[in-house]
Design brief:
single chain; globular
Length: 67
Amino acid sequence: MHITTKKTQDFYSKELFDEEYLIGLISGFIDAEGNVGNGNPVVTQKDRKTLEIFEKFCKILGMGTRL
């Protein structure tokens, strides 16, 4: 069972990461775990939780995602 705590909520707050940091983090993740095909980044990752974390980072930046 997953319990959302205040600490977890704070982790995803806009105030914690600035835009440049998140863009760098996402870019590095795509570079390490994926590629860009037809103008769309594609990431292959077995750990769904990791993908969900990066999905939240993308949402903070207003980027659309699909899992």
